[in-house]
Amino acid sequence: MNYPCGIKKKKTVSYSNRGMNLENDINVTNEYYLNNKIAVIHKKPVPITIVNVDYPSRYEAVIKEAYFKTPSTTDYNGIYRGKYIDFEAKETKNKTCFPISNIHNHQIKHLKNIIEMGGIGFLIVRFSSLNETYLLKGIDLFKHIEDNHKSIPYNYFKEKGYLINMKINPRLDYLKILDDIYFGGENHEKTC
Amino acid sequence: MNYPCGIKKKKTVSYSNRGMNLENDINVTNEYYLNNKIAVIHKKPVPITIVNVDYPSRYEAVIKEAYFKTPSTTDYNGIYRGKYIDFEAKETKNKTCFPISNIHNHQIKHLKNIIEMGGIGFLIVRFSSLNETYLLKGIDLFKHIEDNHKSIPYNYFKEKGYLINMKINPRLDYLKILDDIYFGGENHEKTC
Known about the structure:
Chain A has 192 residues and is an alpha+beta fold. Chain A has 5 helices and 10 strands. In chain A, the strands form 3 sheets. The first copy, chain A, has a 6-stranded mixed sheet, sandwiched between helices. The N and C termini of chain A lie far apart (47 Å). Residues 10-19 of chain A have low confidence and may be disordered. The interface between A and B is large, with 42 and 42 residues. Strand 3 of chain A pairs antiparallel with strand 3 (60-68) of chain B, so a sheet runs across the interface.
């Protein structure tokens, strides 16, 4: 079933796998970029507050109590073609829009700071029911949020965003989009 | 008591506060940089593997079992003057040298990748017994490691590194050093 943006579905299943497919696609893509010396982009660890750690042996530590923290930055950053790259990636099952509540205010503020500093900041959103993944420039994200704080229609991604094609390798070649929009269409792929 | 590099002191005390002073100094410095729109540099969260999470209520999650992972990147990265910045920060009580075992191989490889990509990569080391903090360029770190995998003598930091002065605000102004060595001596501080 699909729910319109803003209406919350009752949570009856574990959310531990939520977003894992996109995350996995980005991680293997980043690995490809790293191994082929195209870019160095990593996912940041999940921010947590550690309350209690057990040391059953000298070299082993077991975290026994910790809590998830609200992230103050985006999940991914790194360097590509000498430029600082920063983005957040989210998956939604919704077919008509992307609920902005999926992104924390801190993360939007962070993307603004990055772009102000001369970095490249953007959002990757997968509409998993449609099997489409879009890259939306930070600037277009901010423009939309000024008008509508709740959600971004799917059509806005179609109009302002860039569809990222799935391939064998690299699986989700989002840097090709950056080539087109930030580096004047040059391609990072080595031609024969 | 001080121990020469390579000789391990018996660990009888908790290490949870190890490196916290330098970390704290860097964090408040980064906050100053952020608030004054000088740079956006953040510490990455500690990488962990989560094994077991309890959900006592719908909105609360308690991590009940997790383990520390070996970091595959450095602790700090961000953007300054349009450039990608990446560094690791370590504290040692040793007065004569810095044991390289404090840095993981992955982290050194990561710094190499960053510099190859055109980023600025370096190491910040505090000799806490001497109350001196040095910035060592990645390139000088790699040069030394080629000759000696075990430790970097204090004198190498004095010779090749850059002493970072402590101030009121920003507390540990390491970007001033980058101004001098990477940006031709220009200063980020606004002059009256």
